[in-house]
Amino acid sequence: MPSAKRAAAGRRPKLGSRTPAPIVLHSAPLVLPIDAEPLRGAALAVRGDRILQVGLRDELLAYFPVTREQRWPGMIVAGLVDACAPAAPPPPGVTARAGLVTDPAESARLPGVSYVEVSYESEQVWEETGRDAVITAIREVDRPRTVGIAAYTPDPQVLEDVAVLARTFGLRLLADLDRHSPATLDEAGILGPHCHVACGRPLDPGERKLLRLRGSVAALCPSPPDDMLTLLDEGNRVAFGTRAPASSGRVADLLSLARSIRQQTRGRGLRLRELDRRLVEAATLGGAQALGMASRTGRIGSLGPGSRADFAVFDARGRYPYSALLSGPPCLATVVGGTVVGSTVVGDTAVGGTAVGGTVIEHRPPRGTQPN
Questions:
Q1: Which range of residues forms the domain containing residue 108?
Q2: CA 159, CA 140: separation in Å to the nearest integer?
């Protein structure tokens, strides 16, 4: 990296231009980017709601004109993504989710996808009232909030029309394998990279293959199918969700679900550290893939240049980071778009009136430099 002075020396804001937002460094003993190897003694350089760079703390301090540093204990990890969330408030650590809404125009608690449920029993009712109502609701949404359709209708003709609507408006789709088989969904044109499916039952080899070929993520919510390991080994993309059927108890959070799968697989011959990594990926990057938000600028589910500054801080330590995260450590803070939205007091530091764990350090950038 070139020095901060060479990168920014002589750059002064033009008359009438807006001064760039300050650069804040979030550092911790361990950073888990998800799509890259874990880093010790590392940090995130954040401006506004975006990550500029992930790297070793000392190198980032030398390169960027950091104005403030939030030093966290434990581990910084990409925010958890709930691919099938209930209406209840999200648990700590969750920074995005997919959920059903009655009014997609209402403000969302977190980033993610708001799904309008389509469960009309007949094509006639759908044509008379339902279709226009759904289109109107979608058009009234204040973008960039992402909206989609939950294709829960039992009518095959309505299901096909929903698939057409999704392609026409560029919408995400959510399907439920307790309502439709993968073959039925595929025949209607529902499956594809723009669709993820809620799954709470075992899948046969043909169903797993069809989901894999179509690029649809299987969101396990909440109880994993018995062939969870087969899904992973065969290359299916997997995410987690905390929405529970009425007949079952609700899993407390995504990492608890991942931890329960880990416990069930002990003694089955799979190396646990490898499984731990894949389970954490499912709770983060897998959820982002399910929501169609895992790539391009503003992506979620991983930490890197251009991604949203969505992350969680856990009081996790150990030689094996993924295993440490699944050992049940408390979540110290949840950060969404660079803003702390939930935290646990660890020290006596307060930022913006909110008690935050860790230590705040004020930095003075080299004179004459501007954040680049």
A1: 80-290
A2: 23
171-228 residue pLDDT tens? 999 999 999 999 999 999 999 999 999 998 889 999 999 999 999 999 998 666 567 8
Q: Let me know whether 11 and 151 are in one domain.
A: no
Structure tokens belonging to residue 160: 């096909």
d(Cα 137, Cα 122) in Å, to the nearest integer? 20
Using CA atoms of 298, 214, 254, 45 in order, give the dihedral in degrees to the nearest 10. -20
* Residue from 178, 288, 195, 185 nearest 244 by CA: 178
Domains of the chain: total? 2
- How would DSSP label each residue in 87-115? SSPPPTTEEEEEEEES-TTSPPSSSEEEE
Going from the C-alpha of 120 to that of each of 79, 132, 158, 159, 335, the distances in angstroms are: 35, 13, 8, 10, 38
∠ CA 83-110-282, nearest 5°, is 30
- Cβ atoms of 280 and 316 within 8 Å: the answer is no
